[in-house]
Amino acid sequence: MRKQILIVGAGFAGMWAALSAARLADKNDNQTIDITVIAPQPELRVRPRFYENHVETLVSPLQPLFDATGVKFLRGTVSNIHPDSRSVSWKDANGETHQHHYDRLILASGSHVNRSFVSGVEAHAFDLDLLESAAVLEKQLKSLANQPESDARNTVVVCGGGFTGIEMAMELPGRLREILGSNSKTRVVVVERGPQPGSRYSEELRNVIIDASAELGVEWLVNAEVESVDASGVTLKEGQRIASSTVIWTVGVQASDLTAQINAPRDRQGRLHVNANLQVEGYDDIYATGDVACAATDDKGNHALMTCQHAILLGKFAGNNAAASLLNAEPSPYRQEMYVTCLDLGAWGAVYTEGWDQQVKLTREEAKTLKMSITRELIYPPKAERAVAFEMADPYAPFV
User: Fold this and answer.
1) 3-113+253-336+382-393 with 121-249: one CATH topology?
2) Where are the domains of the chain?
3) Distances (CA, A) of 156 to 177, 226, 243, 250
4) Per CATH, is 3-113+253-336+382-393 categorized as 3.50.50.60?
5) Is 223 exposed, middle or buried (0-12, 13-18, 19+ CB in 10 A)?
6) Taking every annotated instance into account, which residue ranges of this chain make up the domain FAD/NAD(P)-binding (predicted)?
7) Do 392 and 312 meet the contact criterion of CB atoms below 8 Å apart?
8) How is 86-99 classified by DSSP, letter by letter?
9) Residue 15: how many CB atoms within 10 A of its CB?
10) For residues 229 and 124, is the Cβ–Cβ distance under 8 A?
């Protein structure tokens, strides 16, 4: 009987898990393992770039790649996981429900922004969570040119000063000038709970963010929390009111709700605790990867973040190890000692850091060139060529 590796999700982690599993099966000349991906569409949506313009172009087709590597694809959405029967329920594009058995399940269903815990966010705020919602935001920004002059029209509020919020905020001054004209009096405001801009980052990185913000005219409201959002702006908990037609929500990222269907420990973001082989605690046949995995990157207490940097390698290890468990091969414990950041700072440039202590190595145009190389080349899928894809899917292949 053929063995089934089922992968839920076709993001960075899911795509690389599929390729890595197929690679190991091929390396062992195994013809008895089926590798299947279930996702809403056979394409990689390049989420790290959703703050950019022309968001509809930020996709890469996966079907040719899956065809070249022998990976099966099912277009649909998984609604339920049944660990006791080793199966999932999924709905196809017509809304019909199907069952799919697995011998090994790799959960790579990603994460989402929680829009429900602050009043008015679901109805009135924009986000960069999905390609569709990022496209709605882009349309909103372009529509500002057709609105009458007002403080609300000219003001964009970004809720949250994490990486997504920073990159979006730094992009906005240039975008708004293009839309409203170079002489328009626009305002970009970041609402941040922390005591200073970039307060969760190293002092060295924080100072770069502060300098870039000052040069670009991006304002920060620190020690501030959003009380509510409505059609005309934001009200903060201390009572301050900001009139704005465009409020962007970037906080409260949570792992996919599917993690709650597995009776296993999760962290406060809903990520499943996994061992070094990325198996969910208490389940030898279920692997978690990407944004749904709470995985140690080293022996120093560091854990993978919800970034494509970690998702790519997590996916490669998860796919390899799921296949290894069916081939009676030795697993490869996940390790990702090196951590880097490359933060886009709009017209100012970018900043590149190395290490968990975020030592700044490059800034401005040098860092911007590196950022563009990473987001426009390195993180994209490999060519739809079997040998090339398998070489890159090796968990120990250099990320170049």
Assistant:
1) yes
2) 3-113+253-336+382-393, 121-249
3) 13, 14, 9, 13
4) yes
5) exposed
6) 4-312
7) no
8) TEEEEEETTS-EEE
9) 31
10) yes
Rounded to 5°, the CA angle 321-381-129 comes to: 90
Find the farthest-apart pair of alpha carbons in the chain and give their distance in angstroms, rounded: 70
The whole-angstrom distance between residue 33's C-alpha and the CA centroid of its chain comes to: 29
Profile the chain (400 residues) by mean pLDDT over runs of 10 residues.
95 98 93 96 97 97 98 98 98 96 98 94 97 98 96 97 97 97 94 95 98 98 97 96 98 97 97 98 98 97 97 98 96 97 98 98 98 96 97 86
Phi, psi of 126 (to 5 degrees): -100, 165
Whole-prediction pTM value? Answer: 0.96
Tokens of 341: 């950041």
Residue 215, token pair as written in the block: 């040069």
Mapped onto helix, strand or coil, the DSSP state of residue 358 is coil
DSSP 97-134: EEEEE-SEEEE---EEE--SSSBTHHHH-B-SSSHHHH
**Per the structure block, which two tokens stand in for 292?**
């749904």
The architecture CATH gives domain 121-249: 3-Layer(bba) Sandwich (3.50)
